Amino acid sequence: MTLIDRAKDFLDQAGQIARFAGRLFSLSIKPPYEIKELLAQCYFIGYKSLPLVGLTGFIMGLVLTMQLRPSLVYYGVQSQLPVMVGIAIVREIGPVITALIFAGKIGSSIGAELGSMKVTEQIDAMEVSGTNPYKYLVATRVVATILMLPVLTVLADAISLFGAYIGVNISSVTSFNLFFTQIYRNLQFGDVIPAVIKTFFFGFAVGVIGCYKGYNSSKGTRGVGNSANSAVVLSSVLIFVIDLLAVQITALLGLN
Amino acid sequence: MKSATTKSAKRGTHDPVIIIDHLYKGFGDNKVLQDFNLTLNKQENLVVLGRSGSGKSVLIKCIIGLLTPDSGDIIVFGDHVTDLDHAALDRLRTKIGFLFQSNALYDSMTVRENLEFPLRRHWFEISQDEVDSLVMEALENVSLPHTVDMMPAELSGGMAKRVALARTMILKPEIILYDEPTTGLDPVTAKEIENLIVKLQKKYKTSSIIISHDMTCVKNTSDRVVLLLDGKCYTDGTFDELKNSTDEHIRQFFE
């Protein structure tokens, strides 16, 4: 396949995803709303992801602190460790790592579930029974990912900061109050709000790509596997692209 | 060869529920249906017979709106299917049942939830007692009330087919489209499914299109048989008429 063919394929797929997302917007705002299914998806996507997100958040905070400490000690600024870790976690590492974990768990799950439903004609069965599968399956999952990822990120940030507190106390003794007071005094509006806002877009990317890949799955069980795999890969790449754009926008708005 | 529409008119059954007029459908260079014509009359069991890959499943997927024809017209209860918007198509679909070849049971739901799903989506005012009663009635129709709390993965092939049939029937559709209902089943189970199709047709006075190349199923379920060949309606008649035909294309199905 030549480079031009690859470029054409990429643009073709980008166009199809854009159309898929456009259809999602037009259908999501029209009643009837699938509230029961939305709540069920919020439970599966949000609540069921909490242990994994919490564990990775804790380890992330702990490891980050232990890795940073020697360098800060070398320059004699170890007292700034809570501030540095706090800003790094809240502004960048927390949202991005949580989104990547979320893409791995939820993106693949949505891609595989919808892909499996597609190849076993369950989506067709839903459609012929007079239920719009796009509204019932896709819209609910995408809205749930948009709503749940910011919540998970805030929780992961909190758990991660607690992990950082434990990390600090492995090599020295710092009180809980002192550690968190230092973080809160140095965190500003421009650190927290843009970081949370971008997670809505991360959630949207994970939901739309997972659903798109699953909904357009074909070629049997191999197709389902490919859908799950490409859902994770593509949504992970999109998370970095959105993050890059978010950093540029917050810089333009003077929030950096 | 005269079109099926013309032959049905000759038969004197003037109460068509589905009319297919000059239907064309292809996938790239593969022209599946070419100038296909068909009429399904009220309370008639029509079998569409044809070789694998001849476009039988494509035909019924066009009727239910899962596939869009390239050209031609499909009229169901007076509605032109290709002209309907999503909401109107969904309303029409509540009058049409579709039994998938793969059964297409929702595998993350129990049998009860599978049967409740269409009821909850369309009969909003219905109470839980009425839902339970309709679910059990549907399962009793297929002699499987004991499977109500089982998962689809726990059912045998024949049981899954019967549960799928119960789900198809639960909204009391006026038309049922069967996509190879006996494929992959042993002869005894296949016979049970055939008997169920006939029993339910009589009980609920439905009209049906049955896609099949299983001649036992064709014989046991058909009022009329249409042979789909080269994308066209090659012939139609009763099972016995086709069986006694000397046409070589028809004979190969009976030999």
Task: Please characterize this protein's 3D structure.
The complex is a heterodimer of chains A (256) and B (255). Chain A has 256 residues and is mostly helical. Chain A has helices spanning 3-28, 35-45, 50-74, 81-119, 122-128, 133-171, 176-186, 189-215, 220-252. The termini of chain A are far apart. Chain B is α/β, with parallel strands linked by helices. Chain B has one domain (4-254): Rossmann fold (3-Layer(aba) Sandwich), CATH 3.40.50.300. Chain B contains ten helices and ten strands. Chain B has a six-stranded mixed sheet, sandwiched between helices. In chain B, strands 2-1-4-5 form a four-stranded antiparallel sheet. In chain B, helix 7 (187-204) links the parallel strand 7 and strand 8 (207-212). Chain B starts with a helix and ends with a helix. The chains are: A mainly alpha (256), B alpha/beta (255). Chains A and B meet through helix 4 and helix 5 of A and helix 3 and helix 4 of B.
Features:
heterodimer; A: 256 residues; mainly alpha; 9 helices; 0% strand; elongated; B: 255 residues; alpha/beta; Rossmann fold; six-stranded mixed sheet; four-stranded antiparallel sheet; 10 helices; 10 strands; 25% strand; globular; disordered N terminus
List low-confidence stretches of chain A. none
The oligomeric state of the chains shown is heterodimer
Largest interface: A-B, 15 and 22 residues
Helix count from the secondary structure assignment of chain A: 9
The termini of chain A sit apart by 43 Å
CATH class of chain B: Alpha Beta
Give the ordered list of helices and strands of chain B: HEEEHEEHEHHHEHEHEEHH
Whole-number total of structural domains of chain A: 1
Structural class computed from helices and strand pairing of chain B: alpha/beta
CATH superfamily of chain B: P-loop containing nucleotide triphosphate hydrolases
User: Which structural category fits the helices and strands of chain A?
Assistant: mainly alpha
Count of distinct strands of chain B: 10
